[in-house]
């Protein structure tokens, strides 16, 4: 990807100095002696203006280049107790203003910060490097403001930014998981987050050319990572984990985004390992190990009769284990648009429920009525999908809409054996058209050949690019 090269542009020290001359906090970054002899004017904070004689006995700059902004230098304490949010905001502001600035979260320290929006635009090449631990406040009582509860760390309007390092981002989710309610649907069909809707941990919004790598991200109150309205996302070598029974702790959720790669990562949690929402295209997922989890999901799509478009997605060389679902496409009754050009290739299943699933009757309440419109599922191939399934579920299940058939489903080298016991359910198909290129195990005799007679008004399935 071309944007990667952009990230290596050297930090231009001149810009940095120039910028910092206008900024008292920043100037002290370069001239420590001034900082020590004169109190820091504190326009933006109401903390005590007095400065210890040498606040930084081990100057964090010593081993760093000028474009590295160590949060300790901005008075982050890093004891896991103090609120280090103001220091992070200052470090962000400084690093944002220089090309290839790095916000350094040093190792061997634990920094607690509250819900924060790190917004751009910033100079390109910004790196948020977490080598230590970044920790969320403790549970709902420490998140007093209702409007900060949707998410913890938000990265907004950025281009060419990396979030990486060797450290851990800890969501401290256990008190949230114990709350009695989860996001739920109100009487008018709208989703209410309710008084105990839990925050997502890390959200990238309206940004481009992002790289997220190397980190351990764990115990989110809700979704671990969300990408919405992003172009060019590269995720590599992440480890995401939360307990198997933690509610709604999806690993990586992507929607309204294009050109997304998720590689070489381990995800275990209490919900979808990766979920792909509407408006997403050009996605590649490879080298991922999921489980325990709820598998890799496309959807849910078409809720409240909305249009949903997902196209050109490949999942390959991936392991799914101990999961409620394997490869799932879920759409609601009603809706418009299409899911097309999906390829699932070289997937190892280990004791997975519903290994291969298309569910066009997705419904949370069990009270959804059948409707005549639907999101069209087309051009989906499953190749070399092998391993074992949980016998309480059907290994292959294609429940396509009554009025809008699934078309051009291709199966080859699909071999799924019961993890233990005997096969209970044969593969199931409803209104599913396609071919098996090689005999599958278990044998699937229910795919229909050729094309369905009518798919209704074709224009409702068109997705513009
Ligand atoms: C962090 O702690 C480890 C173990 O005590 C030590 O080896 C390492 O040098 C420390 N790192 C820094 C940057 O101080
Ligand atoms: C973080 O990303 C930057 C920019 O891509 C890169 O130069 C740096 O080596 C990365 N650091 C780690 C620890 O991966
Ligand atoms: C499909 O997505 C891949 C990235 O996963 C991209 O390289 C390719 O160009 C896309 N194909 C089309 C037809 O857009
Ligand atoms: C919806 O249609 C499916 C497939 O024809 C059928 O099995 C199911 O009972 C219907 N559901 C309702 C609520 O009518
Ligand atoms: C069926 O889907 C495959 C990809 O899975 C695609 O290569 C092929 O062109 C499609 N066939 C038709 C008739 O559209």
TrEMBL record:
Its main location: secreted. Residues 38-51 have a biased composition (Low complexity). One of its GO terms (biological process) is carbohydrate metabolic process. It comes from Pisum sativum (Garden pea). Keywords: Cell wall, Cell wall biogenesis/degradation, Glycosidase, Hydrolase, Secreted, Signal. InterPro entries: Glyco_hydro_28, PbH1, Pectin_lyas_fold, Pectin_lyase_fold/virulence. The active site is at 294. Pfam families: Glyco_hydro_28. Belongs to the glycosyl hydrolase 28 family. Residues 1-26 form the signal peptide. GO terms for molecular function: polygalacturonase activity. Residues 32-63 are annotated as: Disordered. Coiled coil: none annotated. It is found in: Secreted, Cell wall. This is Polygalacturonase.
